Amino acid sequence: MIKFVTKICLIFALILGLASPASAFWDSNKKVYYIALGDSLAAGQTPFGSIGKGYPDFIAAEFKEAGVLDGFVKSYAKSGYTSKQVLDDIRNNVTIGQNAGIQAELKKATHITLNAGANDLLRQLQIDRTTEAVTFDEAEVQKAMAGVQQNLTDTVLAIKAINPTAEIYIMGYYNPLPHLPAQYQPLLNNSLAVLNTIIEKIAEASGSSYISISQTIAANIGYLPNPQDVHLSEEGYKAVADLFWTFMNPEMPEKPAPEEPKEEDKEIPVVYWEGMVLKKGQIGKLMIDKPINLWTRADGKLKAVRVLNAGETYRVYGYDGNFGGQYSVGGGYYVTKMDGYVNYKTPSKEKLKLVNP
């Protein structure tokens, strides 16, 4: 797996040059031509089988409201599409809908969103709908993972060969089967983590933006209202679009930092702990091990602010069990407790008493 990802990175480096990180924003004076590629999530399939608004529709609406939308095409996003089918459409220059064909549309695009790979894996799972037992062939799952890696790599290269200047945003996936028994959730979440790592590495190597959505969906199971279906509600698609928009919105502050609670006038001693000065109200610190969302809360829901990067450290002022368990990092901002993504430490009780008498 590691060797294959390394190979992908080398391919991109040789063909594209050392890719710099994708720009999060666009010039608000320029018009946007937006193309959505992908499977049923891009197409907008509902939890009950019909086609409605997918996340691309909400993104396009944001561009329109900003007064910059010049064109929007999502006819190349199809329910059931695998990563190979997305790639084949580009290679074969298919025409779907009233447009000039996929290659001509991609050539005009300023912004392209892409999601593919989940169907490749879901087809390897056998689910008994009576007992809800999950079985699979591990060799076939690994083969499917390798196929996703190759197909997504080739898809991004094909897009860049047609249009080297378009901004590309590649979406990760969520656990589509949270309603299955708890004994199968580790399997599903581990497979999801591998798939998302593949997608993230391809985005990183190609200079594209990676959009993580797994935490947002996991925090609100209501986004998956039909236990017999893997698709999001309209509210779920809107939440996904909001995550894309944090990378696309030109008016978004570049990096809003959590504000620390204001200290009272009462003088407290200066107490050092692990290279930082403890603040009044602080109970510990949170170190970011992997990219993870920073959240605010409003009306009983979470709203993503930005992605915190590995290596960043934040003071922690509280913890509660809401939304799966979250640390308060001050200023109304929260970070979800997720093993492997964050590392929480707390000072001794004696030190805490000095700053929190």
Automatic annotation (TrEMBL):
Residues 1-24 form the signal peptide. Keywords: Signal. InterPro entries: SGNH_hydro, SGNH_hydro_sf. This is SGNH hydrolase-type esterase domain-containing protein. Residues 36-239 form the SGNH hydrolase-type esterase domain. Pfam families: Lipase_GDSL_2. Coiled coil: none annotated.
